[in-house]
Please model this.
Amino acid sequence: VILGSVSVKYDDIFNPFDLTVYTSQDGQNFTEVAKAEYGIEGEGASNEVKEYSLSFPETDARYLKVTASPVPALPDWTERPGNKSFLFIDEIVVN
Model:
């Protein structure tokens, strides 16, 4: 699974804090198959579209759920420290 995200830190738009992939046969009961935590970008990180990739063993599933969490609170170096951030997802690719 590849997820594209855009960050524009001066507009409080940050890349995902974490990313999780789940699979299911029935669309009701999901099993976590991959997870990664990325943390908060530093002040010097560039504003860009970035891809995040998660791999997991081949599985037989009918449904796929992808969750990405925004940064929990804007860092101290931003104009609105402690406020909520935005998360903009460009696309999700499943191979």
Notes: The chain is about 0% helix and 40% strand. The mean pLDDT is 95.
